[in-house]
Amino acid sequence: MDVKDIFAILTKAIVEGDSEQLVGLVKQAIDKVDPLEMVEKGMAPGMTEIGSKFGEGQVYLPELLMAAEAWEEAMKIIKPRLIETGASMKKQGTVVIGTVQTDIHEIGKNILANLLTTAGFDVHDIGCDAPATKFLNKAEEVQADIIAASAIMSTTVPYQKDIIDLLESKGLRDKYVVMVGGGVVSQDWADKIGADGYGELASDGVQVAKKLISQKKGA
Ligand code: B12
Known about the structure:
Helices cover 60% and strands 10% of the residues. The protein has 9 helices and 5 strands, in the order ααααβαβαβαβαβα. Cobalamin is lined by residues 44, 47-48, 50-51, 54-55, 61, 64-65, 68, 102-109, 111-112, 148, 150, 152-155, 179-184, 199, 201-202, 205.
């Protein structure tokens, strides 16, 4: 089967929330196709498609949940492969990552966490629905270099600003590099709230993290 056909079937299986087909194909393809490409070129477009259908009222929450569950099942196979690649790398820095308060979307955040691990970062994932204090407490505990905050909904992006406000109020703003991202987040928003970095895709996030960490260490 051609790689493009594999991506197309992965996309379709996500849209249909068909875990069995998705996992079956991932198992078959895992030794032949780059695992990151399977995620970014196969599965992620499926999530975008089902999301648009949900937005247009063509599908409802159960269908979204089925797509998300299928995603998680496939990631159980893909994640160890992604991490294997990063295990042998020199440590780049320490990252605390989470999805902000009241937001339970974690698929994008999980991809970024996996990719950062793959790139040699020591990643501490505080999960989703995480208030600003949880980001800061973990960052202090593990002596992090970077705080990465994901927010997917227009109602939850303001909580990214809460993290920056909290750091400022404690006199700790310069201690941490703050990166933001997620569905509705943009470079404009990142600039507006005074974040240090933004990435549209998780793979951009890794490049931004590498650049920011080298600036921080050089400073
Ligand atoms: C899957 C999904 C769910 C799942 C989440 C499962 C899970 N375990 O995460 C479930 C079914 C639980 C869910 C629930 C809800 N959802 Co929902 N969901 C989605 C959906 C379809 C996909 C999100 C996703 O995972 N995308 C795939 C990932 C890979 O993309 P991503 O998150 O954008 O991340 C990428 C980048 O943004 C970036 N990135 C992400 N984070 C970060 C962080 C940093 C630092 C960086 C650099 C980069 C980065 O990297 C990722 C990969 O490249 C979207 C639609 C869409 N098109 O986005 C709606 C969507 C986000 N949901 C929406 C809504 C409204 C809800 C609910 C309120 C529905 C309801 N009525 O109950 C609840 C909210 C619950 C809550 N309190 O959070 C709306 C939000 C509208 C808005 N703009 O505010 C959307 C846009 C659907 C829509 N079109 O209306 N949802």
